[in-house]
Amino acid sequence: MAIYVDGDACPVKDEVVRVAERHGLTVHLVSNSGMRPSRSPLVQQVVVADGLDVADDWIAEHVGPGDIAITADIPLADRCVKAGAKVLNHNGKPFTPDNIGNSLAVRNLMTDLRDQGAIRGGGRGFTKRDRSEFLQSLETAVQAIKREANR
């Protein structure tokens, strides 16, 4: 079991590391640029070449059943779900086989509406409640994978 983080714009990196340290899990922090190094020996920083979806491709090629992916990128979430991983958004919302199709459809609709100028701006800001819900969801995902492994 490992945790894969789409790291460039991830607001919950510190929370991921705390949970990983509690459970002894490796974290692959994947980005297109260097980040502040983590002091944790469990964090493997993966810096990929610049380019569209290069970090996403690295994560999708490495993640699998028994792993957790952390991303707000819905197409990447779809790839990780299809690879058998548990996938969480930064706000703790899980992406699952049951909801990923709807998430992709809404994402594509919103992209089209923004491209047409029908809507402007992004979503709401990241809150303390989002951070708390993320921590709870990540802990729940880790526990679920551990239970599945012990069957």
What can you tell me about this protein's structure?
There is one protein chain. The protein is an alpha/beta fold. The chain has one domain: Rossmann fold. Helices cover 44% and strands 16% of the residues. The chain is built from five helices and six strands. Strands 3-2-1-4-5-6 form a six-stranded mixed beta sheet, sandwiched between helices. α3 links the parallel β4 (68-70) and β5 (86-88). The radius of gyration is 15 Å and the shape is globular. The relative contact order is 0.16. The model has no long low-confidence stretch (mean pLDDT 91).
Q: Count of DSSP helices? A: 5
Strand order of the largest sheet: 3-2-1-4-5-6
What name does CATH use for the topology? Answer: Rossmann fold
How far apart are the first and last residues' alpha carbons, in Å? Answer: 15 Å
Overall residue-averaged pLDDT value:
91
CATH C-level: Alpha Beta
Bulk shape: globular
- If classified by CATH, what would the architecture be? 3-Layer(aba) Sandwich
Largest sheet: 6 strands, mixed
- What is the percent of helical residues? 40-55%
- Computed structural class: alpha/beta
| Contiguous runs where pLDDT drops below 50 for at least 5 residues | none
Order of helices and strands: EHEEHEHEEHH
Estimated share of beta-strand residues: 15-25%
The value of Rg in angstroms is 15 Å
The total tally of domains equals 1
Q: Total strand count, please? A: 6
